[in-house]
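Incident log entry.

Two folding requests arrived from the same account within the same minute. Monitoring flagged them as a possible duplicate submission, but the sequences differ. Recording both here for audit purposes.

Request one:
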Amino acid sequence: MTTCRRLCQAKQTSVRDCGFCEPSDCSAEDVLLWVPILDPTTTITIDIAKYIVQHVGNRFCKLVEQEKEAMSWANLKDKIAWKRPVHQVREICDVCCTTLFNVHWVCSKCGYVICIDCYKTGAQRWEKCVSTKCEHLPEDLIITQIIPSDALWDLCKKLHVIRKQYGIHINCICSDGVPSMFEDDHNIFSDDFINSNNNNNNNNNNNNVNNNNNNSNANPTSAEENGEQIIKMSVMTHNQRQGGNKNHENTTAYNMNKEFLMRNANKLEHVIVKYNIEMTSKLFPDVPHKWLDGGKLLQLLDPKNPFNVKIFHQQWQNSQPVIISNCEQQLKPELWTPQSFQNEFGDLLNDLVDCGNKTVLEGCKMAQFWEGFEHVQKRMKDSNNQPMILKLKDWPPTADFSDMLPSRFTNLLEALPLPEYSHRNGVFNIVSNLPDFFVRPDLGPKMYNAYGSALDSKVGSTNLHLDISDAVNLMVYVGVPYDDTEDHEKAAIEAMRQAGCCDETMARVVNGACKPGALWHIYDPHDSDKIRHLLTKVSNENGEPIEANSDPIHDQSWYLDEVLRDRLLKEYGVEGYTIVQCVGDSIFIPAGAPHQVRNLHSCIKAAEDFVSPENVDYCFQLTQEFRHLSKFHTNHEDKLQIKNVIFHTIKNAVSVMQNS
């Protein structure tokens, strides 16, 4: 409460309480953090700013409307208090642990804080006042804002002026006072941005992916025609993916799940675009690439190609995963071997996880893990004297990767592709817009080290789950057991076949072009509810109890084996992406995309999280989902601060555009 109270000097030496600060009490210095002032060192260009506004602007407007609605709940006679934010302190709701953005309610007696969503849903979960020992009642709380003065409303006005000035399509909830039925978030990648050598800013908002740049001889008109041809030839709905099969079994299954299928009944059906190399090589002749998994999975072949971002955007704005290969060319192999980790960290204690039964083995010497990494006979044994499939749990732990592994951190940054997204300060990693005043969310990098399970199809290294942010995962080392090489290699290839890997992926491994490490199954974010419904149905079929506030995806309690994947396809029409990650492969996973990983061989992977403009809606949606998880759930607390990230992203983009 110290940053809320207004103090007055009553006499020469005494100070008394004079109520609460109001938004108008802020100083010019207080406002500086919240207004669009151009940073002379910014690397955000006008085209990048336009692209960000196109993708994040509508979500910002929804955020503003939510704040306005919350303000309307207060009585006209109530004064709004202003709480000055505290440097490097993350204010959270005392009910759901979500980060406070602006409007919230405070108990004047004990300082109990309630966010907009918890205030709206009522007092069922509110704790008693520690001062009065009475229940907290909505009418007794003080409505409070964090953003000083009218900075939030002013930024919203400036955003609308900027979008009109630059001809950026406005489809937000506040454009005409009426929300639109559909959100036009896709295919808004401007020609100016695609053309990296074009310095002329124009107001053209072409929806076609264009390859008109100075390094290409492609005719712009032909490229546009090819783009239209791709759309006509390649758009495939879920029914089409099933070969047009509409038999009674499928119809019945869909009718059974009508309740959740109707959630998005008023929205356009999600479509998956399939490509072939003949189509896209004409649009992107300067970007080496292939199409895997039936034409829906993009594989980029040159991680350092400066034009990768052009075709990457095309997939990413549809929340489709992308694989970028040959990143090992930038790695220093001696840094990433199991022997190097054993030599440097073998004496340290860390927890291990038995992937077979998810038991945590606490306080083991890391040498015990690394010694068995490529030697089955040296692995720790279970109660049946069988070698365990182990995973190194959360290592490095709380220490920052860059502090504990400085040389590897530097090398990892050199190897990660698309630094515009994957680096902490990347222009399309919008968390980079969060000022140093705030506590930055921990987005990594992190390491994932686990043995292979090619011989056991039901054991996953990482069970099905989804993340609140986007991520890139780079395979830095694959180890095949020296004492059982032939059996493990045959089992890995058979596992790939059973998983439904495409012919191109199988050929890549069978021909010896790469060493396979991990088998991924990634699903579209919009299919999450269908997957939940299946897993809940299977639990009911098995007579398993379902606990309150549990979630079959967030709890990471399932690995979808061949039987479950087949049911998901037949009963729900859900077909994911089957990916084999080899040494040097970086997999980009969109926020909100359910995914699982099964190590075929022993793997060392490094991953970095980020927040992209294209997937900010999923980040926002998941923040809301996590509020309802148990307080003891690892995902319950909101550490991403997505509302703060959105505000300062728009603030910085507007500052660039209004000063251009």
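Request two (distinct sequence, not a duplicate):
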Amino acid sequence: MRLLNDMALFVEVIKANSFRGAAEAVGLPNSTVSRRIAELERRIGLRLLNRTTRRIELTEGGRLYYERCRRIVDEARLAHEEISDLVDNPSGLIRLSIPIDFGVVYLAPLLAEFAERYPQIQFDLDLTPKRLDLIRDPVDLVIRIGALPDSQLIARPLGTLQRNLFASPSYLARYGVPSSPAELLQHQCLRMLDAPWILHAAEQKVSLPIQGRYLLNNIGMLRRLALLGQGIAMLVDEMIGEDLAQGRLQRVLPSWRAEALPVYAITETRLVPAKVRVLIDFLSEQFNSK
């Protein structure tokens, strides 16, 4: 049992990237954490960490040992949580990272519904689009949109978000309504990436090297500029429902659709606590019901 506890402590040290951070997380003195890691190294006959005054780094053997320890500790933790699963009452804090505009417009009402269903679960929300290090960053679940970079993380597809082309009535009155994809090349197009727009209609597919004065990395700003009549934007239908209902935006080229964006739930490991698993299942259910 002492070995398992020390393995769990070693995992905490790596996640915190310091003895002090691990000590605060587990409620032990810093000196005790340092001593127990040193004893663990002596017990297995292998240096796990290179220590400096400012940071710690895993040795090659330490990295292999960490991966094994992390899986063992996760299994042990889940064994305890399965007891609470028997009463079907997941509880505790979920640390969740979500893109800003997607979270505010799309996920907020879903989280409110989930909170009603599971009143014993709390949330710590980090609204950011940046890539996170799930070993270092204190996050249980990351929601991301679009293609993902290769990594060792576990990405579960939740569903897709349909995108289409929209513009404000003022823009269309001033510059005209395009009647074909080719006419988009004569318009101001609001771009999220410096890449062609790909559109589909039945069996047709076109790739358009669109141009425009604006290149952005934020959906909220993209929507705002479209509302201000600055150009034609490719937007997610569900995130502009009120704008469409109020006539602030209009569909452009309604017979053509943009490629849908995949949405992923990302975790460090396949072995997730019950509170995280029920949230992933709930979000997947909501996406697939739309």
